[in-house]
Amino acid sequence: MNELVAEFIEYLTQTKNYSVHTATAYETDIRDFINFYENYIGAVVGLGEIARADAICFRAWMADRGRRGLVHKSTARALSSVRGFYKYLARHHNIQNSAIGLISSPRVPRKLSKAIDIGDVHDMHNAIRDIDERAPWIAARDWALVMLIFGCGLRISEALSLKNIDVRGRPDALRILGKGSKERIVPILPPVLDAIEKYTRLRPFGTAPDDPLFRSVRGLPMTARMAEKVIEKLRHYLQLPDYVTPHALRHTFATAMLGGGADLRSLQELLGHSSLSTTQLYTRVNMSEIQNIYEHAHPRARTDDN
């Protein structure tokens, strides 16, 4: 069974172009099910056992995850991983199992995305300058990163994957390679270009066209964890809420675009969402803001007696 799991993971990375992080999550989920199944039947799981797994077994596995304290969101993802594995086995090894299709995913409440107050984003500029006053090029780098994520709605991985050549000559738009190797074109505003130009002018290394745009203090390519630490420092310095993260900057871009009149299809394209339902979460954010304004401002919303 180990060989089949390894074969499936290789298929995800090599054929489906899944990231290593995503493929690792799939492998963890599948092995979690197999380990449970072996304890459940008291034997090593082989092809025959995989084919014969029934709905009671799958539900028992999900219940066991609950007893281990794993949340519904984690179990829903794990069930999706196991379903994907079974589909692969059916297509490539003619191993059929109809029971997996009978299992419903746990209901996972979809949380509203939290946007950062625009005033707090502006305050980040001065905060960065204060924090990194002894290293102006680091301050310029951090502000360029904030501006890219907030100004273009990029994911951290997308911003950090940019090379020098991608921003040479003040382009009107960026060509972004997003999740699933999907390419999209994202307009880039002059203030974002100004921030990038200041950073590239001050940095002490990494100027070749194919070099990564963002560099660490030691000149290595900047990692996602380094970018997260930049926002963590700003959050602590400005005493901002815990939800202020790099991804919250992307949320802020999305809600600002929607509030400014962008339609959902355009926003979906800008964000690189594969599903419109993901983008529609921002309409819920916008409506909650509108409801809040209504309740505080509209005279008919008041319930007190005159």
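Second entry:
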Amino acid sequence: MAYPVAMRFFKRFRTSKPTFSAPLTPDEPFFAIGDIHGRDDLLARLLPLMQDRAPGIRQVFVGDYIDRGEESAQVLRRLHEMQSAEPQKVICLKGNHEDMLLNFLDAPARSGPRWMRYGGLQTMASFRVGAASESASEETWNEVRDMLRLAMGDKLETWLRELPTLWQTGNVAVLHAGADPALPLEDQDEQTLVWGHPAFMTTPREDGTWVVHGHTVVDEAASEAGRINTDTGAYATGVLTAAHVTQDEVAFLRA
């Protein structure tokens, strides 16, 4: 069958999907720790494993410290203490679950029901605060918010509000959920970094930047097409993963 000229031209010159072949060149070795989701027991097991493998190097936590697991308060307090003691070594980024918590503190009646459905109940319980029902009055939601705020304390809330959404070294960026592959990282919207982008998992970046992230649960942490996924679903699988990122190599530790 003879194709029309326009169709033959399209088939011959159609563009291919972008590929990713940049070397992995961080300026320093570091660990990136995946979504903890209230599993302080796993975090306690992972910390000495990192120390044994590469003592003293920077530890970057990709966010989602709270919700779903039973020990969210303990995780937040541990990370806050660690970063306060060694601010140059410990970097904590914001995840979408921290974003939901902060939205709840700012607008309890509007943001509370959604947060409760996605793990906020467990976080509230870890601070020994009871949650309101979805149909509760605005006054009740405000009272619950005030109780949580009191249980958390000013220092912990301030720390959460100041969490960054991006950390970079060399051609490696660490963030929580994803980035728009068509935009430079410095032009990304913070909500995209925290909540993700529909093209992130399917379209490689063309600027040679590797992205280490969490947010999307995988059975095994892996490095593929310039993306290093560290989220092994700790709250459900009992496996918390850290990526040890060095020049041209990624190794994974599991606890």
